[in-house]
Write a structure and sequence with these properties.
Strand content: over 45%
Number of helices: 2
Largest sheet: 7 strands, antiparallel
Helix content: under 10%
Length: about 240
């Protein structure tokens, strides 16, 4: 049997080391020997002895944060030995290594999977004093381990060494040490009163020293109890 489908670039990539690596730009391969966390519904295939467990709210504090923020994207614990393949609506996948002392704030809709060695907390975006369709709460990851995130299209990584402004729905992740706020980008005037709008009423502002990752697409607004694609926040249940 012959086909370009069976070319080397499409064959499963093997490695002697356990952990996360890219199978291709749209798919993550996890060579599992223990446990890790993944977005519910992201498994597209697996081989070996692997178990999947839906997680609870992760304690009263996180349960209350979930109810307050409406950010209920559930995760599952993946454990055992084998190969697990993960994807999320053919989005681009990127793997980030966190070292001790690192901290990364991530839009929950962009989290695909992460090592169970990482710590997290759901936090309010600093300076977010008004409602935003992208959600006001993100998750801050820290510790040692790998995390896989997704973007819609090829992102740009902006170095924040001057005041930087990003559409809240296009901001994927940023250095957790940056100062964040919300900035009115649209000028108020007669046109605004008549219902005319640029669609860019507010942007997120970033200040300090660090980076922000911006995707070339805007996430849909948060609609509370909608589907995964409609959820803009993070992560109702992580570690049980």
């Amino acid at each position: 049997m012959r086909s370009e489908l069976f070319s080397a670039e499409n064959l499963e990539k093997e490695s002697a080391q356990p952990g996360m690596r890219l199978q291709n730009s749209k798919m993550l391969k996890v060579e599992l020997n223990g446990e890790m966390m993944a977005r519910v519904g992201s498994m597209v295939a697996y081989q070996g002895q692997v178990q999947f467990q839906a997680l609870g709210s992760g304690g009263l504090g996180k349960f209350l944060k979930q109810k307050l923020t409406g950010e209920g994207v559930p995760l599952m614990k993946v454990s055992g030995r084998g190969d697990v393949f993960l994807a999320d609506f053919a989005k681009d996948v990127h793997v980030i290594d966190l070292e001790p002392g690192d901290a990364l704030s991530i839009n929950g809709s962009s989290v695909l999977a992460f090592d169970s060695t990482l710590q997290y907390d759901i936090r309010m975006v600093g300076g977010a004093g008004m409602a935003s369709s992208s959600g006001l709460f993100n998750c801050v990851f820290s510790g040692y381990g790998r995390i896989a995130i997704t973007t819609k299209g090829t992102p740009v990584v902006l170095s924040v060494d001057a005041p930087t402004y990003v559409d809240p729905q296009a901001a994927v992740c940023w250095s957790a040490n940056l100062q964040t706020g919300y900035h009115r980008a649209e000028q108020l005037g007669l046109g605004t009163l008549l219902g005319r709008t640029t669609g860019e009423a507010f942007t997120m502002s970033f200040a300090g020293q660090g980076f922000v990752v911006v995707q070339p697409s805007e996430e849909p607004p948060v609609l509370g109890s909608g589907s995964q694609e409609q959820q803009g926040g993070l992560l109702g249940g992580l570690l049980s």
